[in-house]
Specification:
Elements lengths: L1 E6 L4 H14 L2 E7 L8 H7 L4 E5 L17 E4 L6 H6 L1 H22 L4 E5 L3 H4 L1 H5 L22 H20 L3 E7 L2 E2 L9 H10 L5 E4 L4 E2 L2 E2 H13 L9 E5 L5 E2 H12 L6 E4 L14 H7 L7 H14 L5
Parallel strand pairs: 1-2, 1-4, 2-3, 4-5, 5-6, 6-11, 7-10, 8-13
Antiparallel strand pairs: 9-12
Helix pairs in contact: 1-9, 4-7, 8-10, 8-12, 10-12
The structure holds nicotinamide-adenine-dinucleotide (NAD).
Nicotinamide-adenine-dinucleotide binds next to helix 1, strand 2 and helix 4.
């Protein structure tokens, strides 16, 4: 039987990853830790917790006393807990720094002492190199893992989160080496799907506007391109990387997870109009927000080389599932 810990288990990725691990492994004990700062005790999460293979612990990982409750000797640990959401980076950068840094350091200390035969997964972010663009003017496209990690302006609160991911990667790399445990760093790129939160993500934003029949329909940066990775594909990639013996060695691997089909914001809106059967009479094309990138594309060839992963859920299908979920789960205001 596998014993797995997921921190941030009530969040977007945590909840979908839990479902995937239960379905894939069958014989598994899953411990989910979350303080419900962002993750919610909603119907989806309550339904997940009905599974007898899950233990949920409502703990704050910035409190050292929490760790005695987590137990020991896990096969895999997915450390997802973090303060996430661009609005919060601006509103309380000092808390983003404190919570993300402390929870990672305490986790690593706990792991090396109580679970070091297992394997540790840290979710970093492409934010860790996002400001390379303003610092150096360009990034290679597609962007490989091995680009410089950069904070171009420590006074800009936006980079509070990015800096915890940047330093977090160093912590994981050097703890794994010093204490000789297996570890992995993943950088998620635009995961989407049901339960992804309500603000600052283009797909929930478009879905909300379509449901409200907003016309003229605003599109910011209509010609900018992005890729979107459906959440079931994303968590499958995480699990495949953790299962692969190819990611057991030193130095540890840092791996992008994302889709490679690019689409413009206008194309995305049009796809959603088609899926939902509603189309505005007028598009209100607005300039992109300041600092927005014209094209963002992660190089995911390393993920494919290590695991043979391919995305399975086409954008149309993923968008439909996501839209349907948001229709029956509107934001509670
Ligand atoms: N979703 C994405 O596309 C994406 C992109 C890049 C990086 N990531 C990273 O992946 C991880 C998971 O992302 P997500 O989208 O599921 O975010 P999320 O905000 O939905 O989940 C994070 C969870 O951590 C919990 N948490 C926060 N502080 C805690 C604390 N002190 N103790 C215990 N739990 C705490 C929150 O309540 C939340 O449920 C995060 O580390 C995030 O930075 C996600």
């Amino acid at each position: 039987m596998k014993k797995i810990l997921i921190t941030g288990g009530a969040g977007f990725i945590g909840c979908h990853l839990s479902r995937h691990l239960l379905d894939t492994y069958g014989d598994v004990e899953l411990v989910l830790v979350d303080n419900l700062q962002r993750g919610r005790m909603d119907d989806d999460f309550k339904k997940l917790l009905e599974d007898k293979r899950i233990i949920f612990l409502n703990l704050d990982l910035t409190d050292p006393a929490s760790y005695a409750r987590i137990g020991a000797d896990y096969d895999h640990v997915y450390h997802l807990a973090a303060i996430n959401g661009t609005k919060l980076f601006y509103e309380m950068p000092q808390e983003v720094l404190r919570i993300n840094a402390l929870s990672l350091i305490y986790m690593l200390e706990w792991f090396r002492k109580h679970s070091a035969k297992g394997k540790f997964c840290f979710t970093s972010s492409n934010e860790a190199y996002a400001s390379a663009l303003s610092a150096f003017g360009k990034l290679p496209i597609p962007t490989p893992e091995k680009v410089p990690l950069v904070i171009d302006d420590p006074y800009n609160a936006r980079w509070s989160y990015a800096s915890t991911k940047l330093v977090g990667e160093l912590f994981v790399i050097h703890y794994a080496k010093a204490y000789n445990f297996r570890a992995l760093i993943v950088r998620p790129h635009n995961f989407y799907g049901p339960r992804a939160g309500y603000h600052g993500h283009v797909i929930p934003d478009f879905s909300e506007r379509i449901a409200a029949k907003v016309d003229p329909f605003p599109i910011y940066g209509a010609d900018e391109t992005r890729t979107f990775c459906y959440i079931s594909d994303a968590v499958r990639a995480m699990r495949m990387l953790m299962d692969s013996p190819k990611t057991d060695g030193q130095p540890i691997e840092t791996v992008h997870i994302g889709d490679f089909h690019e689409i413009t914001m206008r194309g995305l809106a049009e796809k959603l109009f088609e899926i939902t059967g509603w189309k505005p009479k007028t598009l209100d094309i607005k300039t992109a927000p300041p600092g927005s990138v014209k094209r963002r594309l992660a190089d995911v060839s390393k993920l494919q080389l290590l695991t043979g992963w391919k995305p399975e859920v086409p954008l149309d299908e993923g968008l439909k599932r996501t839209y349907d979920w948001y229709l029956v789960n509107p934001e509670k205001k």
